[in-house]
């Protein structure tokens, strides 16, 4: 009985902080490599393969959900990603992603802007204007 409870607790807590990548339904890709995803979120890839501009949305960099996404999905430390954005902005060679206040706001922005990408909590429903992007 105790083992079953521990297993259920572990299963429950292992789902906390998990995120899924979402894109606007206009994006033709169904899956991407982790390296390609990193190039998108580090603002180095600015155009999708079909020619659409990429619009990146994130939660505030100090928020634990954002940090968990960067560590688990992008496999980098959040401070390194911020350094990449800062370097691009200060050199005039690029920009930083657009910051939103919540997962719901991110879903709304991704759904309403062609070429948009973001992430949301595992288990949230996406509408017809957005889809989940699988990571290989």
UniProtKB/TrEMBL annotation:
Superkingdom, natural source: Bacteria
Gene3D superfamilies: Periplasmic binding protein-like II
The name this protein goes by in its record: PBP domain-containing protein
């Amino acid at each position: 009985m105790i083992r079953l409870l521990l297993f259920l607790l572990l299963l429950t807590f292992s789902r906390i902080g998990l995120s899924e990548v979402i894109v606007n339904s206009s994006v033709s890709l169904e899956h991407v490599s982790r390296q390609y995803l990193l190039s998108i979120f580090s603002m180095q890839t600015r155009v999708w393969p079909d020619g659409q501009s990429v619009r990146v949305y994130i939660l505030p960099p100090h928020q634990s959900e954002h940090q968990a996404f960067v560590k688990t999905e992008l496999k980098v430390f959040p401070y390194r990603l911020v350094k990449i954005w800062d370097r691009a902005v200060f050199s005039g060679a690029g920009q930083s992603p657009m910051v939103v206040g919540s997962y719901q706001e991110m879903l709304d922005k991704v759904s309403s802007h062609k070429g948009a990408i973001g992430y949301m909590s595992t288990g949230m429903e996406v509408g017809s204007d957005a889809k989940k992007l699988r990571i290989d």
